[in-house]
Amino acid sequence: AWGNPMEIIDRAVRGGYAVGAFNMHNLETTQALVRAAEQANSPVFLQVGRAIVPHRGLRAAYEMTRRVAEESDAELVIHLDHGPLEEVYEAIKLGFHSVMFDGAHLPFEENIKVTRRVVEVAHDFGIPVEAELGKIPDADEQVDWSSYYTDVAQAERFVAETGVDLLAVSVGIVHGVPMSSPQPLDIERIEKIREVTGIPLVLHGASGVPESEIRAALAAGVHKFNADTDLRHAFRAGMEAVWSEGDRQLEEAMAEGRERMIAATVEKMRLYGCADAA
Ligand code: G3H
Ligand code: 13P
Ligand code: ZN
Ligand code: NA
């Protein structure tokens, strides 16, 4: 069943937990996310993101996600992850329930201008918008964190002037799982941004973050966690376990990948607190 994205988030804010948002990559991974939602009795954001879109095209990825999801009783939302402008508009036309416009690479004033326009269009269609301020590096990229973190004063202005529903922040997280020990999260920055913006925050790159920091981020004002890599690794481990026993059918390997991914997703739903929240 289709969920209402902001109704799901508002419930999480009131209940003091966060909702999981996970990326689909093919039929089996989409099924894994939907089954995890069913098993954990949890709402979930099914994300169509940057890996699948060039590979399959936005429409094909959306159609696959919709077909798998519409057969389920779980509370599901199809969300565009890290969309450039044209993709956001295409997603709105296709019927996505929620979109992220990622203007983090734009100069600040330009990010405000473009995001505000996206919000106007999306809200006309009844669709909420997640935006990003500050830059999120890839794992093991050498960066000067001071130029990557979300600035608190900028966040206040950005949210007031754009009217976004959710804000993705850069607070020491990275996309992927770093080989070396991860940068600790700047929990105080999350608290301050939450306070000045007044809207729920999103933590991308939740894979590879210690559980204690996930809990602290949640308490500080994060109500949507994006995780991909940890679940992809679980899927891969399942396939490798089957293939380590000799040559087997792809379906058999993918079925074991799906089982492992379901278990890993349910575990994250419990950690974020959205299990049994449907
Ligand atoms: O549906 C989306 C808006 O109407 C704008 O779309 O800029 O791709 O024409 P467009
Ligand atoms: P991870 O791969 O680090 O979990 O990041 C996922 C993400 O942020 C998707 O938008
Ligand atoms: Zn992300
Ligand atoms: Na990460």
Automatic annotation (TrEMBL):
<feature type="active site" description="Proton donor">
    <location>
        <position position="81"/>
    </location>
</feature>
<feature type="binding site">
    <location>
        <position position="175"/>
    </location>
    <ligand>
        <name>Zn(2+) 1</name>
    </ligand>
</feature>
<feature type="binding site">
    <location>
        <position position="102"/>
    </location>
    <ligand>
        <name>Zn(2+) 2</name>
    </ligand>
</feature>
<dbReference type="GO" id="GO:0016832">
    <property type="term" value="F:aldehyde-lyase activity"/>
</dbReference>
<protein>
    <submittedName>
        <fullName>Fructose-bisphosphate aldolase class II</fullName>
    </submittedName>
</protein>
<feature type="binding site">
    <location>
        <position position="176"/>
    </location>
    <ligand>
        <name>dihydroxyacetone phosphate</name>
    </ligand>
</feature>
<dbReference type="InterPro" id="IPR000771">
    <property type="entry name" value="FBA_II"/>
</dbReference>
<dbReference type="InterPro" id="IPR013785">
    <property type="entry name" value="Aldolase_TIM"/>
</dbReference>
<dbReference type="GO" id="GO:0005975">
    <property type="term" value="P:carbohydrate metabolic process"/>
</dbReference>
<feature type="binding site">
    <location>
        <begin position="226"/>
        <end position="229"/>
    </location>
    <ligand>
        <name>dihydroxyacetone phosphate</name>
    </ligand>
</feature>
<keyword id="KW-0479">Metal-binding</keyword>
<feature type="binding site">
    <location>
        <position position="204"/>
    </location>
    <ligand>
        <name>Zn(2+) 1</name>
    </ligand>
</feature>
<dbReference type="Pfam" id="PF01116">
    <property type="entry name" value="F_bP_aldolase"/>
</dbReference>
<feature type="binding site">
    <location>
        <position position="132"/>
    </location>
    <ligand>
        <name>Zn(2+) 2</name>
    </ligand>
</feature>
<keyword id="KW-0862">Zinc</keyword>
<feature type="binding site">
    <location>
        <begin position="205"/>
        <end position="207"/>
    </location>
    <ligand>
        <name>dihydroxyacetone phosphate</name>
    </ligand>
</feature>
<dbReference type="InterPro" id="IPR050246">
    <property type="entry name" value="Class_II_FBP_aldolase"/>
</dbReference>
<dbReference type="GO" id="GO:0008270">
    <property type="term" value="F:zinc ion binding"/>
</dbReference>
<feature type="binding site">
    <location>
        <position position="82"/>
    </location>
    <ligand>
        <name>Zn(2+) 1</name>
    </ligand>
</feature>
